[in-house]
Amino acid sequence: MSNANVSENLADFAAFIGLDWADQKHDVCLKAAEASRTEAAVVEQTPEAIEAWVVKLRQRFGGRPVAICLESHRGALMAALMKYDFLTIFPLPPKQLAKYREAMTSSGAKDDPTDAALLLDYLLRHSERLTAWKPDDPQTRELALLVETRRKAVDMRTQLTNQLTAALKAYFPQALDLLGELHTQVACNFLLKWPTLAALQKTRIDKIRAFYYAHQCRGDVVEKRLAAIPQAVPLTTDEAIVQSSVFQVQLLARQLRALTPSIDKIEKRIDALMKEHPDGGFFKALPGAGRALAPRLLAAFGTDRERFATAEEVQNYSGIAPVTRRSGKSTAVHRRYACSKFLRQTFHEFTNYSMKKSAWAKAYYQLQRARGKKHHAAVRALAYKWIRVLFHCWKKRIPYNEQHYLEALGKRQSPLLQYINAP
Prior knowledge:
About 60% of the residues lie in helices and about 10% in strands. It contains 19 helices and seven strands. The strands form two sheets. It has a five-stranded mixed β-sheet with strand order 3-2-1-4-5. Strands 6-7 form a two-stranded antiparallel sheet.
């Protein structure tokens, strides 16, 4: 990354700290700039204890800058420390710390105080490999957290819906035709009111019709459903199966009924943030980005134009760039595993959708398939290409223009042209 690394400004720091985070406590290994020995301490995992510890650091070193190295996935602790202006945080990827631990301790032993000392050692010995953490503005950080929360909630909804589908197939399969999408409010309320075919058939058709109408469901689809109810035959009359399934179905229905409105609220907040964000229009205009992926792409790049110096850094950070392993005469290339899975998924999904809206993207995918690549490998290759294009536009604050890119391909006589112009 392009930020100045710590090795260029070691003299600016009054102290250096390796901090190993845990659920109950944090192990600290500190070395003052003028000291030759290190100090060990333990900080309890409470806001009050962290505040008291940081206040002592400020008093001891007169408010001069203090460098802290910690594992990068400890987001909660980083958020707690970022409010103190004299602390400079240098995150270290967990895998990098694990490899460093293996190199320094051949026994493979792991201990929290030892990890704190290793973090301090890495900070002092390999500072050129570290970059100070510079958070995005609050608006972008909120957006980044919300899009990931939304994705987890949607995945949870999918899991619950799949479980509900399986449970209904075991004793009340007609519900799948009577309800449509099971995560909707009408479906959940229906199953809470009529969890079995027997309960449904005991109810007058006009009451069931009124239920549909109250949930804004009308038309021929509703009438077909109502006509099918009297002729329906139960899949099983085994009370053990039916009664146990009712408990499971209503449990899942209650969870889905609460989850779906929460997802709607998150999406409305994301929409509001995108509307206000200065880069919102740039990402919403990308082909195939849409309501869900535009904010995820914005969060992936952030607003700090100095965060990445080259497109290659984004490709590596996102996990889209492949990894090459060479040993003797053998060479192997495989996809990157040490990365944010959510970030890699963001670019992978955007690339998939972009092929429906972008002529060159579809052509590039077809070219990769023609060269023998399988679907996901071809998508990653296209994502690699997309990142280069997006990085250039993002860095220079230039809106993406499909026509300009196609004209540039024409000037270069790109091999993509034969796929773009093909009937």
